[in-house]
Amino acid sequence: MSASAPLPPRTHAGGCSESPLRFPLEADSSPSYIRWFTDDLLFHYQRCHRRAFLDIYGDPNWQDPPSDYFLKLRQDSADHRSAVLQTFEPLHRPQFASGDWAAGAKATLALMAQGVEAIHQGVLVMPAPVEGVQLVSQPDLLVKQPGWSCWGDWVYAPIDIKLGKKPKLDYQVVAAYHAYVLSRVQGVWPAQSYLALRGGQLYPIELGRLVVKLQDTLNHSLQDLRAPQPPELFISHSRCDLCQWFSHCYGEAKAQRHLSLLPGVTPARYDFLRQHHITTVAALAQTSPQHLAPLPGFGDTVAEKLVHQAQAMMDNRAIPRTSPQAPHGFPLWPEDLPEGEFELFFDIEAAPDQNLIYLHGVLVVNRITGEETFHALLAESHTQERQAWRDFLDLVHAYPDAPVYHFCPYEAQTVRKLGQAYGTPYRHIETLLSRFFDVHKCVTDGVTLPIESYALKHIARWMGFDWRDEGANGAQSICWYNSWAETGDPTYLEAILRYNEDDCRATYHVKDWLVKFAEPYWERLYATHR
Predict the structure, then answer these.
(1) What is the pLDDT of residues 449-484, one digit of tens each?
(2) With contact defined as beta carbons under 8 Å apart, do 478 and 518 qualify?
(3) DSSP alpha helices (H): ranges in 422-489?
(4) Are the beta carbons of 190 and 205 closer than 8 angstroms?
(5) Helix H segments across 131-236?
């Protein structure tokens, strides 16, 4: 047993074990609708308490159909799992009807007692510390190792196969959960629990470090999932966008004008706002920033932004940010959004799972004639990525004085990365990047908008621009690229090119809106220098 593993439980005759975890839950007679608490529920609870509750009690009709991107991730995960499992052949899989955890546990125990080398999707079951609930663990693999268990001179260690490249804490807690339930089944803790990550990494979990975290998470989840009402909702697009319950929760949040819909309201800040009885957008809009600034995680800048954000939402108007350092009172200067005879609007499309930058989209705008020309510089494979990069350099160098507008830092970061990869002289890259202007930064520095997110789509749509394909987004473009690569169907490529061009045009639209918004302040600046 490794030094980091917790002490094994005491083993009783017959192979049963007494768990070292202690749960402070008090016994009660309240009805429990959870009969089987699975590792999937534990994982979902960590990411969102409400999701786990809805998984048990929610109406299936409330669920969203899976998106193309979700289906792609599921297929990628299945392919990764299949590749890992091949390294553990021969595999034994317990035979039982789907969802019949009791039969699955019985079949798994029989395989473990035989001492088979590897078990795929075995089922481990132990009583939970509340009446009528069983803890269910189904690791991807149970692998035989030397040691002593209730069966003899062998033990099993669990392995969970995950598509991620990093051992996220959510993954680690579930891996510790597998080890915990396994310790009750085999009479001893495994020395390690493992994550098989993308890239061939087998990551050992420090069980001793995670026991307290696991105990706390289990306690709270078993309490919350037996409550009569679901946990309070909180919309977090980074975690909610792929959830099957998103539309249901989002509809409730919109009806309530929930504070989580405001950009900048994090879960931690939301807790502090609730403690100060600020629970609605209207209440926040009427709050003085000076009242919020002393709160942990706020400060003067954040407090002002949040109050302005609530005011913008209440009035559906753009609110200029102020700058005491600027004589015109506005943080954006004319040189932040320069105009010239030509302006370039730049957007990249990539296939991250293939480490490929396959499209440089550039919209060239002639400010004198009003002509607009879109250039799609395409790499149909890895072998063409270098040529697409060269084509991009040739295009931007044909307009040596033109500013290059993009949205967020990704384009600038990728230009630097490609320059290094293909040996473009450093001075050439730095000269080019000096012409780059991040429209997203200009927006967030200069104005507060009545929107839920400062992503390009939210900003541009509020300003009156829309995409030709309703479902177009970055995740969908990845799916279109994979479908195009697999089938050669040109309709997928056409959809990608439309989406990329629309992103460039949206950036152009936002930049022009922002210039018009700033013009009164710049006129004031020019007037003071006459």
Answers:
(1) 999 999 999 999 999 999 999 888 988 999 999 999
(2) no
(3) 426-433, 439-446, 456-462, 474-487
(4) no
(5) 169-186, 207-224
Distance CA 436, CA 458 (A): 22
Q: Which amino acid is at 93?
A: R
* pLDDT tens per residue across span 195-225: 999 988 899 998 988 999 999 999 999 999 9
How many CA atoms lie within 13 Å of 101's alpha carbon, on the beta-carbon side? 15
Please, are residues 173 and 213 in contact by the beta-carbon 8 Å criterion? yes
**pTM of this structure:** 0.85
Contacts of 515 (CB under 8 A, 6+ apart): 337, 339
Residue at token pair 């009885």: 277
Token pair of 293 as six digits: 């600034």
Query: In the chain, where are the structural domains located?
Result: 10-21+32-224, 257-317, 334-528
* CATH T-level assignment (fold) for domain 257-317: DNA polymerase; domain 1 (1.10.150)
DSSP 328-373: TS-S--GGGS---SEEEEEEEEEEGGGTEEEEEEEEEEETTT--EE
